[in-house]
TrEMBL record:
Keywords: Metal-binding, Oxidoreductase. This is Malic enzyme. GO terms for biological process: malate metabolic process. It comes from the Eukaryota.
Amino acid sequence: MSLPMPLAAARIPPYFLNTDHRQRSLTQLRSKHTGLEQYIYLNGLKERDPNLFYEILLGNMLEIIPILYTPTVGDACSNYSHIWRRPEGLYVTIENKGHIRQVLRSWPTGAAARIAVVTDGSRILGLGDLGANGLPIAIGKLDLYIGGAGIKPTTTVPICLDLGTNTEKFINDPLYLGVRRKRPDTAEMDEFMNEFMEGMKEVFPQLLVQFEDFSTDNAFRYLEMFRNKYRCFNDDIQGTGSVVLSGFLNAARLASSAAGTPLHDQRILFFGAGSAGIGVAKQLTSFFTLLGMSEEEARSRIYTVDSKGLITADRKGLQEHKKYFARTDYQGPPLTSLIDIIDYVKPTALLGLSTIHKAFTEDVVRMMASFNTRPIIFPLSNPVSLCELDYTDAIHWTNGSVVFASGSPYKPHEFEGKVYEPGQGNNMYIFPGIGMGAILSKARHVTDSMVEQASIALAGSLSADETSSELIYPRLTRIRDISAQIALAVIRAAQKDNVDENSLFRNLSDDALLEYIKAKQWQPTNAHSLPRL
Ligand SMILES: NC(=O)C1=CN([C@@H]2O[C@H](COP(=O)(O)OP(=O)(O)OC[C@H]3O[C@@H](n4cnc5c(N)ncnc54)[C@H](OP(=O)(O)O)[C@@H]3O)[C@@H](O)[C@H]2O)C=CC1
Ligand SMILES: CC(=O)C(=O)O
Ligand SMILES: [Mg+2]
């Protein structure tokens, strides 16, 4: 019921418009006792007053991003069927097969859409198969596109593909919001995915698709099936590869200035050889070949470990994605303990993408520090509850010599009178800029060099202050500027690869193009919505 204006106005408190809405909302947010309550509050605020929500996000990145994104988004996903309030994304279910286009056409902003984050909920962060509860990860990533790169909110589409779940407890939960069935076999899923991607291209012709948190085999398979056919990329393979390469380059610079180990002498041990671990390993080796190493030399720098130990080529039944980095030079009984593997490899860098909480024990960390002046240790699994190593332990066990980046945020830590700042090696630094660059250049595909150039731009974006503070990633508060620089590098790479369809940019200087990108970044207005009457 809508009231005549004077009566309606009488229901708004008289001084409402003269008060500080940001301060009120932040006070309300901070009064919540758990991260999940804060998540629910912020999503309610986004519904009531999107401008205010994004103003608060932009003004308080360090406080808000860990709520909308990792680690708290992990709780939101795990509990989504229980905390659900209102529709906030698009569900395409296995039962829609045969008429997926009609479902896609129901999205309110239609052809205006520019970026979709699509998950099938089968591997949400390190939390496993959450089925239809996976939607908040797509929403959180899109909030980072909006906050981090300035993508217009109305052009974003969060999508959860509900193909069922193999997690019994959800199927038995009366509140579970998804289809109650087991996941389909490969043939049925491929049919579904082919119809879905064709439908997306038809209904949203200008859309970029970001695949997110698909289980490993499907993540690799759909990337290969679709990358040359549609405008798409896989965040866990390519975004993570790109962001970790950046951090690694800056970390290796710090470590080599202390110990003199040149880049081509690095030995990198991956603990975890799934979509993220192998994605990062491929990005590193591809970069090494740019430096002039042969493919064989580059590959020889990498060691991978899975749940069975060091991956060697003689192991029976090795999954396809593990074969490329399987070692052919190790002779001996299988190496299964991380300590034994480190003792054998003597890595300069240890990267965790395993989902195993605290896998980097005191012995492991001390051993890394025993033969590296500055050991590079990146425990990258998300959320924090699955991270391989806490920051405080890393500092104490290495007497502060560690070069550290984790997937989820840690606070700075004071040790023996010095304040140490951790890095956050998370693809959130990369995908907003890749998305902005791909959208603005109207790239037909996301090429390897677009991803690689994004990484190099991020690595080179440290300010003088960040460099002198020995950071390996820029401070999150600068993410809009950083995303614009990444977008510029992505557009130039798209031009070199001839996949850009917006030829206007070819005549612009880098400075002019950077200005153009910044001018395109959406800003919240301060015209706040009146309370709904
Ligand atoms: N920081 C960031 O930006 C990102 C972080 N991630 C995080 O990385 C983690 C892994 O993701 P993803 O690669 O997609 O997941 P996968 O499930 O594909 O891979 C996990 C890998 O860890 C291995 N593993 C499991 N248990 C052990 C163990 N006990 N010892 C050694 N290895 C083990 C698995 O071995 P096996 O193959 O034998 O099962 C597998 O190779 C997640 O927590 C995710 O949140 C992901 C993307 C980006
Ligand atoms: C960060 C991310 O994409 C993941 O943990 O899956
Ligand atoms: Mg992910």
